[in-house]
Amino acid sequence: MTEPTGGDEGNERATTLADANDERSSVEGKVPDLPELTEDEVARIEARNGLLQTTAMLDAIEASLEAGRFRLRPSTMMSLQRYAVQGLKSDAGGYRKGTIGISNSSHEPPPPEDVAAHVDDLCDYVNDNWESCTPIHLAAYVMWRLNWIHPFSDGNGRTSRAVSYLVLCVRLGFLLPGQETIPERIAANKFDYYHALDEADARWSEGRLDVSKMEALLEGHLAKQLVSIHELASGKSVE
Q1: pTM
Q2: Which domains, from first to last, does the chain contain?
Q3: Of 3, 130, 134, 225, which one's alpha carbon is 20 to 30 angstroms from that of 31?
Q4: Can you tell me the distance from the alpha carbon of 185 to that of 188, in angstroms, rounded to the nearest whole number?
């Protein structure tokens, strides 16, 4: 799990990550290759998949609100991940079969044989605490825990943000209005997002569940998303 960093090493790591927009990616070597794609083809597929995943997320929110009930299930996460990486990964929609690493991170996700049980536990936590915990807490927990498990060979970050937003909206009881949703805002600048993940990892390594940094991050992005409605309506920028 991620340990707190300090001194020159910690400062150097922070500077390096900031310069690269703190970008991280999954490193997993047991996924059969798909036919080789050009950079343009990959970019086109990723753009298409982003739209497909967003549409699927919004459809899931609408269906859950119309049904008046909700239970987070592993199949929901697997479906949203499949939209994110289909045409790019041969195991789209399925759990990873091998060990995995995360570039620019010291966190070591659990072995593949433990993934399904961890995802089940994630769902149980959300479902068991659906009424007793705030929407922000549940969304923050999903965002962190799914990244901690890293259940897929790729698309974990995108899927965590989609599932988190799904949980937030359904728990609130409505689709959040505003331009640039929370997932879009996080994707545009990931430094604070990765820092919040690291903080939750560190607290978990101490034996504590503490996603307060992620909660604060989501609260800030939520406020900006809602302020965008005021700006759109009034034509005035709100500082």
Answers
A1: 0.86
A2: 36-234 (1.10.3290.10)
A3: 3
A4: 5
